[in-house]
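Translate structure to sequence.
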């Protein structure tokens, strides 16, 4: 299976995106297609043995749209200068046309050439000329409307097209009658309606486009954060090159006041860096030899050399941009529901319009009296606001999440997070910093403490578990070299093993001892260490315990506050750890977490998550290690801290870039406000249509309430702008 994201031109409402999505998902070889109205693209999972990009683009064309090729992140915000000029010119033409129409309506003195009474034919031809200009201006709307009707996926453009063409054709008939001398048809010209409908639709889309572009600024800023050039060191000499010329392994140079070109590792020097664009941390971070740096980081005060590790699409920034775009292409349940409604909405409006037209004729009304409500219904019911209600809110909220150091990989998260009632936390590296230190050791061997710790540290250095940091730091402080380790193995959920100097060593918890049925006469020593809040590492050689090492972890400074806030929100909090019961209880007591489950292996963690879900709990799992990955994948929302392992990050739905648990509270808050905003938008969109369609049908004429096609087109635009304005309030979260 392959994935491709293509730019799509010609989509104007949710009926467009829903129709295209349905059409693509019916095609052989397409596994899943998800259309994003706001980002104007489609994400397609397909079988590369059956399809390729060319064939997918052909399907898009068959559905009545046009592919713009591979979606380019850099081109997210496009220039609208030519659109501004067009809107300005046609705004002037609309004002001129309305002036001519109104002065004749109110019998204001104007030059005789424009006078309805003195020169009815010139007046008619003038309105006809305006109509032709606006039909050309709105040709894209008419073309899309026709194509979507032919392909049986009617959308907003279909409604506009039918309304405009109907009024224009009827007006042409009226113009013919005027030409042959029947001036009574001057009262039955709808050229102005055609003009005003097209103008307001185009104006509305222009304004919507400007506001939708604002929602993409966070992505655009990320794309543009890296410098255009870099300084490379070749044979001891400096040379300026472009980013495209950089290759993995190149040695690059950064001086004070410069930005880092690509992700890499410092090999010489140290400096303070501004990484706020990624982490949200406003304070400069000190980085030195051996530490990783991120492309786009600003070097405040040091000269460094660094080795290029991740370039192009592999960089942290590119990965974030990719994940954000993919997230915006996924759809929460509420969006899928709206899409289904939109798919039925347009055909229903068409039926209502045609039935109304026929009823008017059957009741004895003239053709001109029957066609006006027909056109008005088609125009006023255009589902612009309905189409924008959900996707625009999702994109805005994803931008807010990025600004708060929260990377959401699936938009479903923004719906689900507000419903979370249970949060399960891993301990080491999540509730704690994972920065362990060796507090005490019981050495039962003939080896010196330093030699024993050098052996343990050499093996642990190859591990991915946070506990290794205690040993790595110890060896670094003592300036001990790593010994050669052979046949290293990760024993998932238990510990690690490796050979040094042809001797095999096992390192892990008491579960490891029990797994291999090794006699254990040191439980009392373990209890002494755990009473002090230590995590225990058993050191085993030749099936014999030769040492017990206690390591202490540091609780995150705001962990207690976060748990307290979650408890106030009536969200159940659970600590789920592979560590021993005593240590887990000590940590749990300090942060007042309500439920503690210890000594849990990866499979047991998954079973606990599944059990909670079987109890109809909506579960968020927050972790950082390899052993957390299955649990993260099985929870309703998997949250990984950025310091976590790659596999944990890959298994999660959300990445906390700032490594701050407070981001969980922010995510829940953003989710709640996003869903509230979407519901407000949907209420307005449905309320508007429920209110306006009966008025357009003429049902309220007996009490003096009615509208014509021009007012209908203005109301439609205002409806969309209200939804856009309401959605943009989310940016202030």
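Result:
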């Amino acid at each position: 299976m392959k994935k491709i994201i293509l730019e799509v031109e010609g989509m104007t409402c949710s009926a467009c995106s829903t129709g295209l999505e349905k059409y693509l998902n019916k095609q052989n070889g397409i596994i899943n297609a998800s259309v994003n109205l706001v980002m104007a693209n489609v994400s397609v999972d397909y079988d590369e043995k059956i399809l390729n990009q060319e064939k997918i683009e052909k399907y898009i064309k068959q559905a009545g749209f046009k592919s713009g090729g591979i979606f380019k992140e850099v081109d997210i915000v496009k220039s609208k200068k030519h659109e501004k000029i067009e809107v300005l010119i046609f705004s002037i033409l609309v004002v001129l046309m309305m002036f001519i129409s109104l002065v004749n309506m109110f019998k204001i003195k104007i030059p005789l050439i424009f006078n309805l009474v003195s020169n009815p034919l010139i007046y008619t031809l003038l309105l006809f000329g305006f109509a032709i200009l606006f039909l050309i201006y709105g040709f894209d709307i008419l073309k899309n409307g026709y194509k979507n009707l032919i392909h049986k996926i009617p959308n907003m453009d279909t409604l506009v097209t039918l309304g405009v063409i109907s009024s224009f054709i009827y007006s042409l008939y009226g113009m013919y009658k005027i030409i042959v001398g029947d001036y009574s048809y001057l009262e039955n010209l709808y050229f102005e309606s055609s003009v005003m409908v097209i103008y307001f639709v185009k104006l509305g889309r222009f304004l919507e486009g400007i506001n939708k572009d604002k929602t993409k600024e966070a992505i655009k800023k990320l794309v543009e954060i890296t410098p255009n050039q870099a300084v490379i060191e070749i044979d001891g000499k400096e040379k300026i090159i472009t980013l495209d010329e950089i290759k993995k392994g190149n040695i690059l140079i950064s001086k004070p006041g410069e930005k880092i070109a690509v992700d890499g590792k410092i090999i010489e020097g140290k400096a303070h860096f501004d990484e706020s664009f990624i982490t949200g941390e406003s304070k400069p971070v000190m980085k030195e030899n051996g530490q990783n740096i991120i492309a786009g980081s600003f070097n405040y005060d040091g000269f460094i050399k660094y080795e290029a590790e991740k370039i192009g699409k592999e960089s942290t920034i590119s990965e974030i941009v990719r994940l954000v775009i993919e997230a915006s292409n996924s759809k929460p349940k509420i969006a899928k529901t709206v899409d289904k409604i939109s798919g039925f909405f347009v055909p229903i409006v068409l039926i209502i319009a045609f039935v109304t037209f026929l009823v008017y004729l059957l009741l004895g009304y003239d053709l001109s009296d029957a066609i006006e409500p027909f056109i008005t219904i088609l125009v006023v019911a255009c589902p612009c606001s309905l189409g924008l209600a959900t996707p625009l809110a999702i994109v805005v909220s994803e931008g807010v999440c990025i600004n708060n150091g929260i990377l959401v990989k699936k938009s479903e998260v923004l719906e689900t997070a507000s419903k979370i009632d249970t949060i399960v936390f891993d301990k080491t590296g999540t509730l704690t910093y994972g920065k362990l230190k060796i507090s005490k050791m019981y050495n039962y061997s003939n080896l010196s403490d330093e030699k024993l710790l050098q052996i343990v540290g050499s093996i642990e250095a190859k591990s991915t578990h946070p506990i290794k940091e205690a040993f790595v730091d110890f060896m670094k402080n003592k300036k001990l070299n790593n010994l050669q380790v052979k046949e290293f193995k990760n024993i998932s959920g238990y510990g690690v093993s490796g050979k040094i100097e042809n001797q095999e060593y096992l390192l892990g918890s008491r579960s490891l001892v029990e797994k291999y049925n090794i006699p254990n006469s040191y439980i009392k020593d373990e209890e002494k260490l755990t009473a002090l809040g230590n995590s225990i590492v058993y050191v085993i050689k030749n099936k014999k315990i030769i040492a017990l090492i206690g390591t202490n972890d540091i609780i995150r400074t705001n962990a207690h506050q976060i748990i307290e806030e979650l408890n106030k929100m009536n969200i159940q909090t659970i600590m789920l750890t592979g560590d021993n019961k005593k240590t887990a209880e000590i940590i749990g007591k300090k942060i007042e977490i309500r439920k503690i489950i210890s000594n849990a292996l990866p499979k047991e963690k998954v079973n606990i998550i599944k059990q909670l879900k079987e109890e109809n709990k909506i579960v968020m799992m927050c972790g950082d290690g390899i052993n957390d990955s299955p649990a993260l994948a099985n929870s309703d929302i998997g949250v990984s801290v950025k310091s976590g392992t790659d596999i944990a990050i890959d298994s999660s739905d959300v990445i906390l870039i700032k490594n701050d648990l407070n981001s969980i509270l922010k995510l829940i808050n953003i989710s709640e406000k996003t869903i509230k905003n979407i519901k407000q938008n949907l209420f307005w969109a449905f309320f508007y249509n429920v209110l306006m369609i009966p008025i357009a049908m003429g049902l309220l004429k007996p009490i003096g309430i009615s509208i014509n096609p021009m007012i209908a087109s203005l109301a439609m635009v205002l409806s969309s702008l209200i939804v856009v304005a309401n959605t943009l309030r989310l940016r202030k979260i």
